């Protein structure tokens, strides 16, 4: 009789012990989940880092459209034939940050200038100059030509070009993708 009582008590202890371990493990997992999920990228981040497709249909020559990609302002400017000619005429090697226009725009679609919308001096957003004369920074007066190359400081670098690739029909561009 006494043996049986001991055995029952022993079984109860074992059962209680297993239950305690289970509850403990579940508690740790529950407590750790916010930390684990915080370490991975959230949906918003994944969405922001994905390439951005931009339709170019309807963007007239001389017009600039603005888009946000990865939290950054992107300026997409439709250059006129005069703006393209001016960019090609300029001696790229004589500029503050020497670079040929052909290194900054697509050979197939040279009418599109796509740059990050931040002055390399201190990050202000440059404005398009009237009459297709390039860009000017409202903060300290840096100027950029129709290729986004700096022609007057204090900026010492050209407007940055984000990776982009044109759809074969030329009617849209994918920001954040590399040309094949
Ligand atoms: S931020 Fe553009 S010139 Fe200073």
UniProtKB/TrEMBL annotation:
<dbReference type="InterPro" id="IPR019470">
    <property type="entry name" value="Ubiq_cytC_Rdtase_Fe-S_su_TAT"/>
</dbReference>
<keyword id="KW-1133">Transmembrane helix</keyword>
<dbReference type="GO" id="GO:0008121">
    <property type="term" value="F:quinol-cytochrome-c reductase activity"/>
</dbReference>
<dbReference type="GO" id="GO:0046872">
    <property type="term" value="F:metal ion binding"/>
</dbReference>
<feature type="domain" description="Rieske">
    <location>
        <begin position="81"/>
        <end position="173"/>
    </location>
</feature>
<keyword id="KW-1003">Cell membrane</keyword>
<dbReference type="Pfam" id="PF10399">
    <property type="entry name" value="UCR_Fe-S_N"/>
</dbReference>
<keyword id="KW-0411">Iron-sulfur</keyword>
<dbReference type="GO" id="GO:0051537">
    <property type="term" value="F:2 iron, 2 sulfur cluster binding"/>
</dbReference>
<comment type="function">
    <text>Component of the ubiquinol-cytochrome c reductase complex (complex III or cytochrome b-c1 complex), which is a respiratory chain that generates an electrochemical potential coupled to ATP synthesis.</text>
</comment>
<dbReference type="InterPro" id="IPR036922">
    <property type="entry name" value="Rieske_2Fe-2S_sf"/>
</dbReference>
<keyword id="KW-0408">Iron</keyword>
<protein>
    <recommendedName>
        <fullName>Ubiquinol-cytochrome c reductase iron-sulfur subunit</fullName>
        <ecNumber>7.1.1.8</ecNumber>
    </recommendedName>
</protein>
<dbReference type="Pfam" id="PF00355">
    <property type="entry name" value="Rieske"/>
</dbReference>
<comment type="subunit">
    <text>The main subunits of complex b-c1 are: cytochrome b, cytochrome c1 and the Rieske protein.</text>
</comment>
<keyword id="KW-0472">Membrane</keyword>
<keyword id="KW-0249">Electron transport</keyword>
<keyword id="KW-0813">Transport</keyword>
<dbReference type="GO" id="GO:0005886">
    <property type="term" value="C:plasma membrane"/>
</dbReference>
<keyword id="KW-0812">Transmembrane</keyword>
<dbReference type="InterPro" id="IPR017941">
    <property type="entry name" value="Rieske_2Fe-2S"/>
</dbReference>
<dbReference type="InterPro" id="IPR014349">
    <property type="entry name" value="Rieske_Fe-S_prot"/>
</dbReference>
<dbReference type="InterPro" id="IPR005805">
    <property type="entry name" value="Rieske_Fe-S_prot_C"/>
</dbReference>
<keyword id="KW-0479">Metal-binding</keyword>
<dbReference type="InterPro" id="IPR006317">
    <property type="entry name" value="Ubiquinol_cyt_c_Rdtase_Fe-S-su"/>
</dbReference>
<keyword id="KW-1015">Disulfide bond</keyword>
<keyword id="KW-1278">Translocase</keyword>
<keyword id="KW-0001">2Fe-2S</keyword>
